Known about the structure:
CATH superfamily of the largest domain: Winged helix-like DNA-binding domain superfamily/Winged helix DNA-binding domain
Largest sheet: none
Low-confidence stretches: 77-81, 88-100
Distance between the termini: 55 Å
Radius of gyration: 17 Å
CATH topology of the largest domain: Arc Repressor Mutant, subunit A
Number of strands: 0
Shape: globular
CATH class of the largest domain: Mainly Alpha
Number of helices: 8
Amino acid sequence: MDNQQQFLEAYDKYAPAISRYCYYRVFDMEKAKDVVQETYTRTWKYMADGKKVENIRALLYRIATNIIIDESKKKKISSLDKIMEEGFAPFTDTRQKTQDHFTAEEIIVIIKTLDEKHRDVVLMKYVEELTTEEIAFALDETENNVYVMISRGLKLVRKIMKNRLI
């Protein structure tokens, strides 16, 4: 398969997942769209230079993650507290919270409270369903480190969820 065909198939297959991942990282639909566009632009340039791509899905996540990190270094991202002060209401579902059930909005808020490395691996593993190997490549980490980060990230999520039930 030539690079152009591989690229087009990757766009069709992964663009929705990359968009979702970017949104959950930046929490702004327009910024997420910009990151996705830049991700595919950089991926095409990489492939057009004749470089071989063995796992295009992992490469897309790596490029998207790098763009988001670069952007966050350029400008300070508003804290959740500041957003809340400005009137953001994350719990839009009026459904009563039970002991074992959280709304999607609550889960997003919980994930947002995680530090960046744990948030990334939890999103990649459980929202985007990437393999540990793909996550390791995307984040430039060893598979063992990714496994540990996933485990610790889940422990943090459970702790936060438990505290919210009290």
